[in-house]
Design goal:
mainly alpha; 484 residues; globular
């Protein structure tokens, strides 16, 4: 049996370069609307190019491409379901008055000078308890975006603080799927992995909190009349009640009980729908439009609010924009983009392009700093190329496992570096599943919040810095074997 010939690293880079060029022109022309179709076409075109190169130049059968693409899409099927439920949950939380209630009290409690740092800390605590950056951002994150808007913060700053905190918890929580995956792939005990990550993660968070604290003091505080206008508008539009806070409380309890994410999000949505009918029937009937029968109007309004985009009359355009929802249909562009990204990742895997490109990084693994930097670079590259953090974690861990063993380093160093490189940077890439999802949920383009996600790009740099210092990095001394 002949060994399959694979493309050289330089040939393998061709689809990536084509994709980058296409996305550059697409984004420059369409702006934030690029996710409505332009970016998807770019990904599919690049997938076709990759497949053509593999089939024509390296005689790789179509069946291999098809299987790899199907496997990739199957791997993110759960994430697609979660996205649909999050679309419904976000709408239900907003229209039931849960998010308006959180905003109403939040703008009065959190001082603007400390809003950004408080925002980061709150999301960090919630994501540690939930183990999910997605759930944190889709629930408390949306409320914090509203508070930030009321206090006059640019949306990029607020989103950056939310994402920084959310991905801190996603990275170190034992409930996080990426944390479990990174430790499993590298065969590192889970809590060994988490404890070892503290040496890079905690300093990264401390620096991040300092930056957000300093930024808060340079923020021009809106007058109390602006905040009063905002809160008055919310109370005029919604029935504000502390009873509505039962929804996030119950959601937190379900998460603490380790109820599966899909079930938790579904039950949270269902509870919010019940509260929406109890506390905001006028809102539901406004969404339904002209209906002669009240029961019919409530039923129609509930369904429309969950699956379709909605907008309500509001005292100001700013408030109207805040309380507008996208529903499940608002997630379809993101789902479409994820499927197209999975097609490209599958095609590049099938023809061996990913393995060929990452072999370039292996050349720099002779010293500790080079080894860690190569792992970081590979993880970041795979996030760019495969557009999925789970695939990137698996490929990075498997690729470097043998190298770390050969060099005599502990598996926990590889597991930590993999998380430092992959988990936190995925949200910074516009076409990555995380970047697309969070941009959609928060309503802020990826490139708008990217400069302010301090934690997310300090973490991989901290991993390299700690390797350069050599702190807590042990290279076991191999004892010669003796015969009995």
């Amino acid at each position: 049996m002949q060994n399959k010939k694979i493309p050289s690293p330089w040939v393998s880079l061709l689809p990536i370069l084509v994709l980058v060029v296409l996305l550059f022109f697409t984004i420059s022309i369409f702006g934030s609307d690029a996710l409505s179709g332009g970016s998807q076409i770019c990904l599919l075109f690049t997938t076709a190019l990759c497949t053509l190169v593999g089939m024509a130049g390296y005689r790789i059968p179509w069946k291999e491409f098809e299987c790899a693409i199907v496997n990739n899409i199957t791997g993110v099927s759960t994430a697609l379901i979660i996205l649909l439920i999050i679309g419904a949950l976000s709408a239900a939380w907003m229209l039931s008055g849960v998010v308006p209630t959180l905003i109403y009290y939040g703008v009065q409690i959190i001082h603007p000078r400390f809003f950004l740092v408080s925002c980061c800390i709150i999301c960090a605590v919630v994501s540690v308890m939930t183990g999910s950056s997605w759930t944190t951002i889709a629930t408390i994150g949306i409320a914090l975006m509203g508070i930030g808007k009321a206090q006059g913060f640019a949306e990029g700053w607020t989103a950056g603080a939310i994402i920084s905190g959310a991905y801190f918890g996603d990275k170190i929580s034992p409930l996080s799927d990426t944390t479990v995956l990174a430790s499993s792939v590298t065969e590192t005990p889970l809590f060994t992995h988490i404890r070892y990550m503290m040496f890079t993660t905690v300093p990264s968070l401390i620096i991040t909190l300092i930056l957000f604290t300093v930024a808060g003091f340079f923020h021009t505080v809106n007058g109390t009349e602006h905040i009063a206008l905002f809160t008055d508008g919310l109370s005029e539009r919604f029935h504000i009640s502390l009873w509505l806070l039962l929804v996030p409380v119950v959601t937190g309890i379900l998460i603490a009980k380790k109820v599966p994410s899909i079930i938790t999000l579904f039950l949270s949505t269902l509870m919010a729908v019940v509260f929406m009918l109890l506390f905001q029937p006028e809102v539901v009937m406004e969404i339904a439009g002209d209906c002669t029968n009240r029961a019919t109007a409530l039923f129609k309004g509930t369904l429309v609010s969950l699956y379709s985009a909605t907008s309500l009359a509001a005292p100001t355009s700013e408030l109207g924009e805040l309380i507008a929802t996208r529903g499940m249909s608002g997630m379809m562009g993101t789902i479409w983009l994820i499927i197209c990204a999975m097609c490209l990742g599958g095609a590049m895997t099938a023809c061996g392009m990913l393995g060929s490109i990452t072999s370039l990084f292996v050349r720099f693994t002779h010293r500790l700093v080079g080894l860690v930097a190569s792992t970081v670079g590979t993880g970041l590259f795979l996030n760019l190329a495969t557009a999925d953090q789970y695939i990137s974690i698996i490929l990075t861990g498997n690729m470097f496992k043998g190298i770390y063993e050969k060099e005599g380093y502990e598996s926990r160093l590889l597991s930590r570096t993999t998380e430092d490189a992959v988990t936190v940077t995925s949200v910074l890439i516009p076409w990555n599943t995380c970047g697309m999802t969070q941009a959609t949920i928060l309503g802020v383009p990826t490139l708008t919040y990217l400069p302010y996600c301090f934690f997310n790009y300090i973490s991989p740099l901290m991993s390299i810095l700690v390797a350069a210092i050599g702190y807590k990095i042990v290279k076991p001394v191999r004892m010669p074997k003796t015969e009995n």
